[in-house]
């Protein structure tokens, strides 16, 4: 049991860092279309306005890091669900021992 605790700590740290980065990517990409719209595009020429319109339409759906072949995305709430599910499974297995 003593040897498995550092391993669990490393796995939790790696999972948390990936979910935190995924959460940041989702948050920042959600702000992207508003940031593009807030730029000074009104005074630009027609081709510039078309490009801004295209960028806004492309950034409406936020970027995300997929987990499990696209089953879910890496965010902090997903990390919490993984920890809760793992702990539940662990306690059930401990009862049967």
From TrEMBL:
Pfam families: 7tm_6. The keyword Transmembrane applies. Keywords: Cell membrane, Membrane, Olfaction, Receptor, Sensory transduction, Transducer, Transmembrane, Transmembrane helix. GO terms for cellular component: plasma membrane. GO terms for biological process: signal transduction. The lineage of its organism: Eukaryota, Metazoa, Ecdysozoa, Arthropoda, Hexapoda. GO terms for molecular function: odorant binding; olfactory receptor activity. It is found in: Cell membrane. Signal peptide: none annotated. The keyword Cell membrane applies. The chain crosses the membrane at residues 63-83. It is a multi-pass membrane protein. InterPro entries: 7tm6_olfct_rcpt. This is Odorant receptor.
């Amino acid at each position: 049991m003593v040897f498995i605790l550092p391993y669990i700590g490393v796995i939790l740290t790696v999972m948390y860092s990936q979910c935190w980065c995924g959460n940041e990517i989702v948050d920042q990409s959600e702000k992207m279309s508003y940031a593009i719209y807030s730029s000074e595009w009104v005074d630009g020429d027609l081709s510039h306005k078309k490009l801004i319109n295209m960028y806004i339409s492309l950034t409406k759906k936020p970027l995300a890091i997929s987990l499990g072949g696209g089953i879910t995305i890496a965010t902090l709430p997903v990390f919490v669900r993984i920890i809760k599910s793992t702990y539940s499974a662990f306690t059930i297995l401990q009862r049967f021992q």
